[in-house]
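We modelled the chain as a single entity of 265 amino acids. Its sequence is:
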Amino acid sequence: MKVSLIITTYNRPDALNLVLKSALAQKRLPDEIVIADDGSGEETKELIQHLAQKSPVPILHAWQEDKGFRAAMARNRAIALSSGEYIVMIDGDMVLHHSFIEDHLTAAERGCFVQGGRVLLDKKATEKAIRESRWNFSIFSSGIKNRKNMFRYKLLKRVFGGKSRNLEGIRTCNSSLFREDIFAVNGFDNRFVGWGREDSEFAARLLNRGLLRKNIKFSAIAFHLYHRENERTYLPENDKRLQDTLENKSVRCNDGIDRFAEEPS
């Protein structure tokens, strides 16, 4: 099954460099990588071009003008540009365990979208990882806040995983689903501006369509590089948009991925 890795980024080429290197060190490589760029400058563009020249898989660059935080639209552009049957989504500050793609493909299941977790690195550990170009971490590495999320065990994955219809903890920084399910709900809602809830609202429409959330624990491990918290200026408006979707049991948004691509037949 052809898999596309979608990586969202904005003006953080040092982190993106590390993330891309971890993506290209996968035991099971993605068939293509698409950068969902929310308006980064020339340094990011040059980095992507440089790595694309040496990459064993295509690296595509879906760029949009910088008009504030528009992650929803950036993801739509990137997914529209991709060609994979299965879509794995991460953020440009998520360094991947070498079995990350393999674990997502193992978890892939019709009628479900997959939600993974993250291992949090503190500021000092993040700076060291970027400085040393390190994307492999051990349980003894310093600066890790939730060390239990580092363990990859098949038995524990079966015990602590499961399916639900819960929206709590939805994060597209570690998630995956079939391409056809993205188009069935018209992707992310392009109207979301500013940090927050665009991923939860997307997941709510998937649930409204009848999909289940499949949680994966002790699997699909990714290390979140430290950054300052995003501004929450638009959060009240975004909360309202999410609440409208929940109350109306909406399945498709009016302004979504169809702006950039037709639904696959």
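As a brief sanity check on the tokenised model: The mean pLDDT is 93. The radius of gyration is 17 Å.
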